[in-house]
Write a structure and sequence with these properties.
- With 164 residues, this protein is an alpha/beta fold.
- It has a single domain, classed as Alpha-Beta Complex (Spore Coat Polysaccharide Biosynthesis Protein SpsA, Chain A).
- Helices cover 34% and strands 21% of the residues.
- It has helices at residues 13-23, 45-52, 63-72, 92-101, 118-126, 145-151, and strands spanning 3-9, 32-38, 56-58, 78-82, 106-108, 140-144, 158-159, 162-163.
- It has a 6-stranded mixed β-sheet with strand order 3-2-1-4-6-5.
- Helix 1 packs parallel to helix 2 (45-52).
- It is globular, with a radius of gyration of 16 Å.
């Protein structure tokens, strides 16, 4: 299975260093194709990615737009969207491979926050339940390219301040 990891960024200099360092500890790191889809960062996100040898594409701002451009830049079987402030399990490649082989076209990982805030602890607790309302975000989602294309990719909406 060919897995493409897409990281949308906007001024994520500190987080991208930590994320890439984390991902490099995965036993399957060399088996993934990775791209950072940057929405015009004004910090050193691009320089950091260049130093780390990470492929970067620049897109207009907008999370959905960035993730769609990132996906289009890869020729893989499964997309894995990971935000720069996320730390997936180091077994993510095998976990996703197993899920796809079991017939799942998409999925996500449970998450917890590096915070002592009570509401975030409650949110983390509910990610253990397989319900739409319990997953709370798009920080770490995988989807087969076939399902992604059938859905038409991420659908952003336009507000008067720009794409969101």
């Amino acid at each position: 299975m060919r897995l493409g990891l897409i990281i949308p960024t906007l001024n994520e200099e500190a987080n991208i260093i930590e994320l890439i360092s984390h991902l490099q500890r995965s036993p399957d790191f060399q088996r993934i194709e990775m791209v950072v889809s940057d929405g015009c960062s004004t910090d050193d996100t691009l320089a950091v990615c260049a130093q780390l040898g990470i492929k970067v594409i620049q897109t207009p701002r907008g999370r959905a737009l960035q993730m769609n451009h990132g996906a289009r830049s890869l020729d893989v079987d499964v997309y894995y969207f990971v935000h720069a402030d996320t730390r997936p399990p180091l077994t993510f490649f095998q976990d996703i491979t197993d899920a796809v082989q079991e017939g799942y076209a998409l999925g996500s990982f449970r998450f917890k926050f590096d915070s002592s805030k009570f509401l975030l602890k409650i949110n983390s607790y509910f990610t253990r339940f397989n319900q739409m309302w319990t997953n709370g975000g798009d920080q770490s989602l995988f989807i087969t390219t076939k399902a992604f294309e059938a859905l038409g990719g991420y659908q952003g909406r336009v507000c008067h301040h720009g794409r969101i």
